[in-house]
């Protein structure tokens, strides 16, 4: 299946999200803010989105991301989970976030 489009991620608690190969999170010195570089576009995520994206390493599950953020912000896990999943699903639908492969080598 070479050349096939990657399957879009359905984000859930056990998903292990990471940025797609063509998407990069980078601090832009000129703008003095974090940006998400994607083909032919530059997105300017808010501070919370940046923090979520920085945690998306393909190793941590969404549940673990939510747990870390709930502890850090002393906020209810269910509220954080809803926001994290909504953000990641939106980016996954656009092809900017993908799921890690099951076998990590």
| CATH class placement | Mainly Alpha
Low-confidence stretches: 1-5
The sequence of SSEs as H and E is: EEEEHHHE
Into which percentage range does the β-strand content fall? 15-25%
For the sheet with most strands, the description reads: 3 strands, antiparallel
> Could you give the distance between the termini?
21 Å
> What's the number of structural domains?
1
With strands numbered from the N-terminus, the spatial order across the biggest sheet is 2-3-4
User: Over the alpha carbons, how many angstroms does the gyration radius reach?
Assistant: 14 Å
How many DSSP E strands?
Answer: 5
The name of the CATH architecture is Orthogonal Bundle
What is the 3D shape? globular
Count every helix, treating DSSP H or I runs of 4 or more residues as helices: 3
Mean pLDDT: 90
Helix content: 25-40%
User: Within the CATH hierarchy, at the fold level, what is the topology?
Assistant: Arc Repressor Mutant, subunit A
Structure characterization notes:
- This protein is an alpha+beta fold and about 100 residues long.
- It has a single domain (about 15-95), classed as Coenzyme PQQ synthesis protein D (PqqD) (Arc Repressor Mutant, subunit A, Orthogonal Bundle), CATH 1.10.10.
- About 35% of the residues lie in helices and about 20% in strands.
- It has 3 helices and 5 strands.
- A 3-stranded antiparallel sheet has the order 2-3-4, covered by helices on one side. It has a two-stranded antiparallel ribbon with strand order 1-5.
- α2 packs across α3.
- The model is unreliable at about 1-5 (pLDDT under 50).
């Amino acid at each position: 299946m070479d050349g096939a489009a990657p399957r879009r991620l359905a984000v859930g608690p056990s998903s292990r999200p990471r940025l797609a190969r063509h998407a990069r999170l980078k601090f832009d010195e000129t703008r003095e803010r974090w940006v998400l570089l994607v083909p032919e576009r530059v997105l300017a995520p808010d501070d919370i989105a940046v923090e979520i994206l920085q945690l998306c390493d393909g190793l941590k599950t969404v549940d673990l991301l939510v747990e870390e953020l709930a502890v850090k912000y002393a906020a209810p896990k269910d509220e954080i989970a809803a926001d994290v999943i909504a953000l990641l699903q939106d980016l996954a639908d656009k092809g900017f976030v993908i799921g890690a492969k099951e076998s990590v080598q």
